[in-house]
Design brief:
2 domains; about 0% strand; mainly alpha; 8 helices
Length: about 180
């Protein structure tokens, strides 16, 4: 948070952060739209042609505006989602409504607990870098455990479904059995 915002009332801090994230998100969206309308042969277009953007576009096509809203609660995905929404030419009003909800959530988090969490991590690093490293390892371990467990559950579910006969095969068996 800028030093000139420190000690200001929550409403002022929230308003400034909301304005910043709103302008940034809209600029990124319109930059994405611009890529599709005329600047496809520039270095910017080449930078947007990567696996992360491709996955994000596929997710946007599947989930739409809710993904835009949720992206504001993530780190490192918000810009890609906003640019991808512009790339796929998501209707501006749908995008803006979803973006406004995300902007409110982002500003509320960073005006209150988000900045406090960041300051806490900096204080922990100043006091004991090893404690911060241990915390980082714990968080990374927890994320890896969740990903591994979810993938294992998805694999078990796919195996269960592939072991069952497909509905068409079951119907065909029923027809052949009657003859």
């Amino acid at each position: 948070m800028p030093s000139w915002l420190e000690g200001k009332p929550f409403a002022i801090t929230f308003g400034v952060l909301f304005g910043v994230v709103l302008l940034r998100a809209q600029a990124t969206y319109w930059l994405g739209r611009g890529v599709t309308t005329g600047i496809l042969h520039t270095r910017l277009a080449a930078r947007l042609d990567n696996p992360k953007t491709t996955r994000t576009i596929a997710s946007l096509n599947r989930w739409g505006p809710p993904l835009v809203t949720v992206s504001f609660l993530t780190v490192g995905l918000q810009t890609v989602v906003n640019a991808a929404a512009g790339l796929i030419r998501m209707p501006w009003i749908r995008y803006t409504l979803a973006m406004l909800i995300g902007c409110v959530a982002w500003a509320a988090i960073y005006a209150s607990v988000g900045i406090a969490a960041l300051e806490g991590m900096l204080a922990l690093a100043a006091h004991s870098p090893w404690a911060l490293a241990a915390l980082g390892v714990l968080v990374i371990g927890a994320v890896i455990a969740v990903v591994v467990l979810r993938r294992a559950a998805m694999t078990r579910q796919r195996t269960r479904w592939s072991a069952r006969p497909a509905p068409a095969r079951r119907l065909l068996r029923g027809v052949l059995a009657k003859k």
